[in-house]
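User: Sequence in, structure out. Go.
Assistant: Echoing your sequence, followed by the structure tokens.
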Amino acid sequence: MTLPVHWVPSLVEAAAGSTVEVTGDEAHHAVAVRRLREGEQVVLADGRGASATGTVASTGKRLLTVTVASVAHDPRPEPAITVVQALPKGDRGELAVEVLTEVGVDRIVPWGASRSVAVWKGERATRSHAKWQATAREAAKQSRRAWLPTVTPLASTADLAAVVAEADLAVVLHEDGSVPLSAIDVPPAGRIVVVVGPEGGITPEELSLLADTGAHVVLRTSTAGVVAVAALLARTGRWA
């Protein structure tokens, strides 16, 4: 049985024999939901590659203390994967964030595409972004990732030019694409960007901007982003 994982802000000072405190909602989840008790083992992670395995020393209403037995450091995975996800309707955005996190995506960029049904403005934008962040955090915990993915603020189409320009490989999933993913050379390191459009599709103007910035337009898959990312990651050392 694998040990439960809980997030902490930092493990910089963690070492064998030291004590780490888990507080707030994370401690409440550990104590009230998972019902961790003194003497049980647990893994703490900071989302930046460090993890500590230890034993629960004490519990409180919103407090958990852990005596560290060992500390591990995982290097940041290469290549880094960014998915630009156009805002879908309903709760499909959170589902996309969940599966993308589980498959190993490092950064998720919400995109307000021209044909996006959902619109993030004002308080709704704040709440929706927070939901995406919370979903990524929980999915990373469940999939036992050492590195927590980043969910950036909402990007416009103009913002995507910079995201694509910094990539070593950028692909746009489009129903009219003529190039299969299997024909694309995948770099062993650097940055890969995958652009997933909205239900209504990417407009010709958006597609032209992305292509002019250097993105490859490839065949769209039925389940879009997660399948494309899996197809690309399978050809890198991250899934070796």
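User: And one key feature?
Assistant: The CA atoms of residues 102 and 239 lie 13 Å apart.
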